[in-house]
Amino acid sequence: MSAELAAELAGTNAQISEGIAEVVARIDALSELAAELAAELAGTNAQISKGIAEVVARIDALEASLANVDIPSEAQAELDALKGAAQKLDDIVPDAPPAPGVPV
After folding, report:
1. H and E: helices and strands count for the chain
2. CA distances in angstroms from 69 to 24, 59, 63, 72, 80, listed in the order given
3. Is 48 within 8 Å of 93 (Cβ atoms)?
4. What pLDDT, on the 0 to 100 scale, is given for residue 102?
5. If you placed Cys at 102, which of 3, 17, 27, 98 could pair as Cys (CB 3.0 to 4.6 Å)?
């Protein structure tokens, strides 16, 4: 092998090594961004889930307090609409998957 060819191959090898290092650095940066995004999404999901639980608890408390009270049909319709809205909100956030072996 000539010295010229060896030098050219060494230069090409160095360029490939630099390219690989750059790709690895970009993969690492993307992995960090993905981890940050996952953490942020988990926090947002927890916040939404907490809000849903609070709304449902208040609706349940309102229903319990009105259990033995005659309320106008318009008020009942609004309560039913509120329950429907809470269910739609709950449907946005997926429920945790059941544990393996637990029937659904």
Report:
1. 2, 0
2. 67, 15, 10, 10, 16
3. yes
4. 67
5. 98
Per DSSP, the residues of 51-98 read: HHHHHHHHHHHHHHHTTTS---HHHHHHHHHHHHHHHHHHHHSPPPPP
Taking the C-alpha atoms of residue 44 and residue 36, their distance in angstroms, rounded to an integer, is 12
- 68 phi and psi, to 5 degrees? -110, 25
Cβ(93)–Cβ(49) below 8 Å: yes
Joined tokens for residue 13 = 């090898």
- Structure tokens that stand for 45 in this block: 């999901």
DSSP 8-state secondary structure symbol assigned to residue 24? H
The dihedral of CA 49, 54, 59, 64: what is its sign? positive
Distance CA 82, CA 58 (A): 11
Query: Do the Cβ atoms of 89 and 52 come closer than 8 Å?
Result: yes
